[in-house]
Design goal:
With 259 residues, the protein is of the alpha/beta class. It has one domain (7-258): L-arginine/glycine Amidinotransferase, Chain A (5-stranded Propeller). It contains six helices and 15 strands. It is globular, with a radius of gyration of 17 Å. The structure holds citrulline. Residues 20-22, 63, 66, 68-69, 85, 88, 118, 166-167, 170, 248-251, 254 line the site of citrulline (CIR).
């Protein structure tokens, strides 16, 4: 992986975190456990060499801890999103200022486009953009146009028929310019033809949302097969408890914006 991350933006969960959106049916999350898991996640980012900036917690937006959905930050490209869930639209204003501090020239997805950052999988200089129940074709089109200006190609993958994932990156991530990790339902998708794909079995599907951060790969704890497979390929997995975020349909990538 050529890019070195130096900073991350995060936002701690609020006490009303359980009021956020979820279809997971895993029960209500425990706030104090979620807070501890979030703190451990931030420690892990620091271990990977990043400085971690905390944005103010947002009680008005119980899903705001899933900060990844509000912006797409890839090399030379910063795009504020327009989240597809009405209850999350207002989150973008709360990250605008912090994102502007990162790069002055910020682009923005506008209506009728919708786009969640979790639907954007950066792989080398290509963006796979998920068409989901949150991201629509117009949002993807706008992002692809911004991406082209920044030298990225882009293609879409329609995930609306895959009930088990909320966002594309819930089931497809890039751990290296030459390796994707994907759930069964995506591993043999035509859009991935020609790419090397490590397929995560059904029993470990949640772990597909792992995150390459410099020398490490953050992986959800409790999914030993993926961790072992990554280790055997020379990666250095860093397991993290994610149970409370999983209950709210969230994964490792959505808890930070990394750049
Ligand atoms: C939501 O439904 O929007 C949140 N409860 C979870 C968002 C997870 N985000 C992500 O995977 N990028």
């Amino acid at each position: 992986m050529s890019h070195v991350f130096t900073r991350a933006l995060v936002r701690a969960p609020t006490a009303n975190f359980a009021d956020g959106l979820t279809a997971a049916q895993l029960g209500a999350p425990d706030f104090s456990r979620a807070s501890a898991q979030h703190a451990a996640y931030c420690t892990a980012l620091r271990e990977c060499g990043l400085s971690v900036e905390f944005l103010a917690p947002q009680r008005t937006y119980p899903d705001a801890t899933f900060i990844e959905d509000t912006a797409v930050i890839v090399r030379g490209l910063v795009v504020l999103t327009r989240p597809g869930a009405a209850s999350r639209l207002g989150e973008v204003a709360t990250v605008r200022e912090a994102v502007m501090r990162v790069v002055g020239n910020v682009r923005e997805i506008v209506a009728p486009g919708t786009l969640d950052g979790g639907d954007v999988c950066e792989h080398g200089t290509h963006l796979f953009i998920g068409i989901s129940h949150r991201t629509n074709a117009e949002g993807a089109r706008q992002l692809a146009a911004f991406a082209a200006e920044a030298g990225y190609s882009a293609s879409t993958i329609d995930i609306r028929g895959i009930a088990s994932i909320l966002h594309l990156k819930s089931g497809l991530v890039s751990v290296d310019d030459g390796l994707l990790v994907a759930i069964d339902a995506l591993a043999s998708h035509a859009a991935l033809k020609g790419h090397e794909v490590l397929c995560v079995g059904a029993s470990e599907a949640y772990a597909a949302n792992c995150v390459r951060v410099n020398a490490r790969v953050l992986v959800a704890e409790g999914f030993p097969r993926l961790a072992a497979e990554l280790a055997s390929r020379g990666f250095d997995p860093l397991p993290l408890s994610m149970s409370e975020f999983q209950k709210m349909d969230g994964g490792l990538s959505c808890l930070s914006l990394r750049f």
